[in-house]
Amino acid sequence: MVYLILLLNVLLLGIASCGVLPADKCKLEDSSCMIPAFQKSLPIFMAGIPEYGVEVLDVMKLDDLKFELAGLKFGLKDGTVKGLKNSIIDDVKWDVKNKKINVAYHVDCSIKGHYTAAGRVLILPITGDGQMKLKLKNLNIKLILTYDIEKKDGKDLVKPTSFKYEYEVIDGAHFDFTNLFNGNKELSDAMIIFLNENWKEITKEFGGPMIEESAKKVFKSIVGFFSKNPIGDIAHV
């Protein structure tokens, strides 16, 4: 139910730069160089680079969210995502010919916020209005970013146009909600046990909207970064 990040996330990503204006630049299609370069740049990118149009992404503040999916109405206010700066970059493939960037990474992260819930989660009814905390262990994300090239002052700029992603939580999710069922402890305890026993199916069923929300924030920062840094300044082209 919410968990999402996601984040991913979530991360979408450290697609920051090949090192945030590195001294030793990679060739765009050299994955063996790009993977450690992305890894090195990730904490810097996630901490925010205002002069490059990159907001703070860890801890990430989420916009208020509401969605209705599979019989569940869910809202999240004052949401935060923590842990993205610790993402591990697994693969980077920059396809110059087709103007696509593929990034795979994994991360442990947590989400907090004030939730509202009404409806059903899988087979059980749920209602609540309180605080939520969700921990995701080994969230895997594969991101595909498409882009165009535009000229500015005689230099080539990457202009991201869209993104899509796949995600999977590999090693577990842990849910904690206060004030489920108007504070009924028996019903609340039973629901939390159910959520944590069925974490894999629940994260798969309800994770999309959350990950989408965090992904939009990361994508916006990626667009801002590339709008201020010609591709020739951050990599060999």
TrEMBL record:
InterPro entries: Haemolymph_juvenile_hormone-bd, To_sf. Residues 1-18 form the signal peptide. One of its GO terms (biological process) is circadian rhythm. The keyword Mitochondrion does not apply. GO terms for cellular component: extracellular space. Keywords: Biological rhythms, Signal. PANTHER family: CIRCADIAN CLOCK-CONTROLLED PROTEIN DAYWAKE-RELATED, PROTEIN TAKEOUT-LIKE PROTEIN. Belongs to the TO family. This is Circadian clock-controlled protein-like. It comes from Papilio xuthus. The lineage of its organism: Eukaryota, Metazoa, Ecdysozoa, Arthropoda, Hexapoda. The gene is LOC106122295.
